Amino acid sequence: MARSADIAWTKADLMGIAKHQKTILWLLLLSLAASFVGLTPITALIQLYFIYKLAMAVRLSKAEMVIYVIMAFIPFISLLALASLNSKATDVLKSNGIRVGLMGAKMNDVAAI
């Protein structure tokens, strides 16, 4: 895959990445809480959808998406998958001049592009 700095990102692309990144971060917190009460199968199914959406937004290869999907079904490893995917989204956003805080991108920065 080409580096995120080498890819031309549109405003719509960056808005989608920022939106899905925020969702992934909330899902990361939900998954962490759910793992302590035994709801990991339910959160794994939810994770699949949002992993797919963010992976498509950051233009991951099919092989990388398959790896993330498999990781979504492994307790605690799924948290690492979400964190890794979040890191990829952060790299894309930061390389395009968008500030990224603890809970994702600053939507004002994305809107200003």
Proportion of strand residues: under 5%
Rounded to the nearest angstrom, the distance between the terminal CA atoms is 25 Å
Structural class: mainly alpha
Total count of domains: 1
Largest sheet: 2 strands, antiparallel
Low-confidence stretches: none
Radius of gyration from CA coordinates: 14 Å
Secondary structure: helix percent: over 70%
Mean pLDDT equals 85
Strand order of the largest sheet: 1-2
- Spatial shape: globular
The total strand number stands at 2
Q: Count up the helices.
A: 5
Helix/strand order = HHHHEEH
Give a short overview.
The protein is mostly helical and 113 residues long. It is built from five helices and two strands.
What does this structure look like?
With 113 residues, the protein is mainly alpha-helical. The protein has one domain (15-111). The chain has five helices and two strands. It has a two-stranded antiparallel sheet with strand order 1-2. Helix 1 (11-37) packs antiparallel against helix 4 (77-95), helix 2 (40-57) runs antiparallel to helix 3 and helix 2 packs parallel to helix 4. It starts with 10 loop residues before the first helix and ends with a helix. The mean pLDDT is 85.
Secondary-structure map with pairings?
Elements: H1 11-37, H2 40-57, H3 62-72, H4 77-95, E1 100-101, E2 104-105, H5 107-111
Antiparallel strand pairs: 1-2
